[in-house]
Design brief:
The chain is mostly helical and 330 residues long. The protein starts with a strand and ends in a 9-residue tail after the last helix. The chain has 12 helices and 5 strands. α8 packs antiparallel against α11 and α9 packs across α11. The chain folds into 2 domains: 210 residues, Rossmann fold; 81 residues, Tyrosyl-Transfer RNA Synthetase (Orthogonal Bundle). The chain binds tryptophan. Tryptophan (TRP) binds next to β1, α6 and β4. The site of tryptophan has 13 residues, from β1, α6 and β4.
Length: 330
């Protein structure tokens, strides 16, 4: 039985891109895998300039949304990274043998650091902390999107190197468990969904707000008039149907679009109904949790306690094998 671990940054508003790209998948996975561990990675979120009050708010919003979306503290452990100090402890150990060149080669590092005048070392070490997150729980399956595949490769290198030097097979080599939904584009149909681009639909937005955003959303650019047949493969609305609508509806949309049976607005109305059906219960639960914050805090505390138990056991073993166990007379 594999152990699942994944992390999400408490960055910005939780939108349907994050939901479909990660959280919806986590909610499904907790059913099949008991003891899955999910982490709000606040230490990963401080590698750039940030406002402490904003971070504090975002951690809370993320935690509340994770439970609202269906993560169940009875099935999975959900906690905040900085509540378990072993993450940073193991991360330091891993930095001591991770080649600088491997870190400089990471696409995400190159993209983020490219235009910076002064690059924080933490940005370079980011994937080492990620390896520590995963290996601390000796997790072997990590649900992530495509963009994290390279980071996971580095986690496997780190596991392999440590094992070769200090203890055969102690750390498993964690594999990505790719999210079934393809990367969701923003409502402009061009760029990845991202708050800073203003092309998102928030996870907790009202039915009316969702419609106001869907209505003008970009579809197949070659479909100018309602009578023009469309190509669902190039339409972002069709991708959203695949994520929110039942298979029969998706097949129907495909036919109706290609034959110009439905106009884009008809198609969006059907999508809207299916989105509302899925998102309304999440919004209702999020409201309830805002009224009863203790439920979120208790769930996080219990998640952190479970996580700490595993983390401490791993660190005991790691330190013993590395000659870092409690000092005694030689
Ligand atoms: N780097 C991941 C992202 O940007 C977040 C993350 C941090 C993570 N630690 C992790 C994901 C451990 C999976 C496992 O999405």
């Amino acid at each position: 039985m594999s152990r699942i671990f994944s992390g999400i940054q408490p960055s910005g508003e939780l939108h349907i891109g994050n939901y479909l790209g990660a959280i919806k998948n986590w909610v499904a996975l907790q059913q099949q895998h008991t003891g899955a561990i999910f982490c709000v990675v606040d230490y990963h979120a401080i590698t750039g300039n940030y406002d402490p009050a904003v971070l504090r708010q975002r951690r809370w919003d993320m935690a509340r949304s994770l439970f609202a979306a269906g993560l169940d503290p009875e099935r999975a452990s959900v906690f905040v990274q900085s509540d378990v100090p072993e993450h940073t402890e193991l991360s330091w150990i891993f930095t001591t043998f991770t080649p600088l060149g491997d870190l400089e080669r990471q696409t995400q590092f190159k993209d983020k650091s490219g235009t910076m005048e002064s690059i924080p070392a933490g940005l370079l070490m980011y994937p080492v902390l990620q390896a520590a997150d995963i290996l601390l729980y000796r997790a072997d399956a990590v649900p992530v999107g495509e963009d994290q595949v390279q980071h996971l490769e580095l986690s496997r290198d780190i596991a392999r190197k440590w094992n070769a030097r200090f203890g055969e097979d102690f750390f498993p080599e964690p594999k990505p468990l790719l999210t079934p939904t393809r990367r969701i584009l923003g409502l402009d149909g061009k760029a990845k969904m991202s708050k800073s681009l203003g092309n998102t639909i928030g996870l907790l937005e009202s039915d009316e707000e969702i419609w106001q955003k869907l209505r003008p959303a970009v579809t197949d650019p070659n479909r100018v008039r309602k009578t023009d047949p469309g190509n669902p493969e190039v339409c972002n609305i069709f991708q959203l149907h695949k994520a929110f609508s039942p298979a029969e509806t998706v097949a129907d949309v495909d036919t109706q679009c290609r034959s110009a049976g439905w106009g884009c607005i008809d198609c969006k109305k059907v999508l809207h109904a299916n989105m509302v059906a899925e998102l309304t219960p999440i919004r209702t639960r999020a409201q309830q949790l805002a009224e009863e914050p203790a439920r979120v805090l208790d769930a996080l505390a219990s998640g952190a306690s479970t996580a700490r138990g595993i983390a401490q056991e791993t660190m005991r073993e790691v330190k013993t094998r590395m000659g870092l166990d409690p000092v005694r007379q030689g």
